[in-house]
Amino acid sequence: MAIPTWLRECADGVEVFIYVQPGAKKTELAGDHDGALKLRINAPPVDGKANAAVIAFLADRCGVSKGKVLLLSGDTARRKRLQVIGITAASVVKQLAR
């Protein structure tokens, strides 16, 4: 199984590069976007609500607790780099495909 460009193995788990579209009608994955996984989020980009929604969505889809999803960069940007602790890249690809 090929690892997508938006996913990278690291020491404790994986890093996921995400492009966020906040304020969408519904929360859903929208495929690749310029080397990142595009994620439409129905939360507004106000007071960290979109970031919290991204973390909750990724944790739910990967089957880990929200505490194991860390926002590494992109706090106020659409492009974000997150780390999911305790999971493999192959597992992330499988979980996100469902």
UniProtKB/TrEMBL annotation:
Pfam families, A to Z: DUF167
Source superkingdom: Bacteria
GO terms under cellular component: cytoplasm
First and last residue of the signal peptide: none
Family membership noted in the UniProt record: Belongs to the UPF0235 family.
Name of the protein in its database record: UPF0235 protein
Species for this entry: uncultured bacterium A1Q1_fos_504
Lineage start: Bacteria, environmental samples
